[in-house]
């Protein structure tokens, strides 16, 4: 059976496609691949196995490339969870864009002459500032998400789209010192730490001197070796110490950092960084 080089976790899925709450998570059981191989090749139980898989199984592709693990997960499961539809909920948008929001205050400091949004999804964040920017570039690893963004911004001449399927750093087509600002909201919280590092290194290259980088990312310290979907709000493992190490390595200077309570106390962080 293809794709059995994966860890498998059984979790109940609600009618709208979202994983049920933490009660089941505490009872989750990992199933070794050789057991799955046996079940999948035993003809009398093939039908039952497929039914269980379709209703309860979330598979996490293993491999050395952390970006591919995340991309594979969202490519397989994201549409089933109606993620982009739920993310357009005004209550969720308000967390980032209402007048008194910390995220809006930090965003207001950016020079929007030529702006890049990393991991834009269907474009819900850039949509909030579409009338305030000069050239606006939306980048994502998902072709499907970018197609939704293109539909949303149809007829908007100053918005451009970049498909970067590797999900790691920025494409070589983005030239050095080409953006006045780079930001990412509500996406990097799910990324593995190596991927966050790759975006910091690439963003420093792509920013003009004096440009600002604004990243919202995970500050969830627990479960460093486990799947991110087992964590509150699907926050991946990352610490302030690691993030500081990464942006310092890239060459950034820290302007300010704030810890925020999302899925757990201080589960998230947002940092404004300067390229000297």
Describe this structure in words.
With 276 residues, the chain is of the alpha/beta class. It folds into 2 domains: 1-62, no CATH class; 85-274, 3-Layer(aba) Sandwich (Rossmann fold). It has helices at residues 22-27, 33-41, 46-56, 66-77, 83-87, 90-97, 102-107, 124-128, 143-152, 193-206, 240-250, and strands at residues 6-10, 30-31, 57-61, 114-118, 135-140, 159-163, 179-188, 207-218, 253-260, 268-274. The protein has a 7-stranded mixed sheet with strand order 6-5-4-7-8-10-9, with helices on both faces.
State the gist of this model.
The protein has eleven helices and ten strands. It is α/β, with parallel strands linked by helices and 276 residues long.
Distance between the termini: 52 Å
- Percentage of helical residues? 25-40%
Rg (CA only): 20 Å
From the coordinates shown, what is the CATH architecture of the largest domain? 3-Layer(aba) Sandwich
Which fold name is given in CATH as the topology of the largest domain? Rossmann fold
Domains, number? 2
Give the oligomer, counting copies of the same chain as homo and different chains as hetero: single chain
CATH top level label of the largest domain:
Alpha Beta
CATH superfamily of the largest domain: Vaccinia Virus protein VP39
User: What is the overall shape?
Assistant: globular
Order of helices and strands: EHEHHEHHHHEHEHEEHEHEE
Q: Provide the low-confidence segments as ranges.
A: 1-63, 77-81
Average pLDDT number? 79
Number of strands: 10
Give me the side-by-side strand order of the main sheet. 6-5-4-7-8-10-9
Structural class: alpha/beta
* Proportion of residues in β-strands: 15-25%
């Amino acid at each position: 059976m293809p794709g059995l080089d994966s860890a498998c976790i059984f979790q109940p899925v609600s009618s709208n496609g979202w994983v049920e709450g933490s009660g089941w998570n505490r009872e989750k059981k990992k199933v070794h691949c050789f057991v799955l191989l046996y079940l999948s090749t035993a003809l009398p139980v093939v039908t039952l196995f497929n039914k269980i898989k379709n209703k309860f199984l979330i598979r996490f592709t293993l491999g050395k490339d952390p970006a591919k693990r995340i991309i594979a997960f969202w490519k397989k499961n994201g549409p089933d969870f109606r993620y982009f539809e739920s993310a357009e909920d005004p209550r969720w948008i308000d967390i980032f864009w209402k007048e008194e929001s910390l995220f809006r205050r930090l965003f207001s400091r950016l020079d929007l002459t030529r702006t890049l949004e990393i991991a834009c999804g269907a474009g819900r964040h850039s949509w909030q500032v579409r009338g305030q920017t000069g050239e606006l570039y939306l980048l994502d690893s998902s072709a499907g998400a970018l197609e939704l963004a293109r539909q949303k911004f149809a007829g908007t001449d100053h918005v451009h789209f970049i498909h970067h399927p590797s999900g790691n750093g920025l494409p070589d087509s983005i030239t050095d010192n080409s953006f006045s600002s780079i930001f990412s909201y509500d996406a990097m919280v799910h990324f593995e730490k190596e991927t966050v590092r790759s975006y910091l290194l690439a963003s420093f290259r792509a920013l003009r001197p004096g440009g600002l980088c604004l990243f919202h990312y995970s500050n969830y310290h627990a479960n460093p070796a486990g799947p991110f979907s087992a964590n509150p709000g699907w926050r991946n493992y990352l610490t302030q110490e690691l993030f500081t190490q990464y942006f310092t390595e890239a060459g950034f200077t820290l302007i300010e950092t704030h810890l925020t309570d999302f899925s757990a106390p201080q589960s998230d962080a947002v940092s404004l960084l300067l390229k000297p």
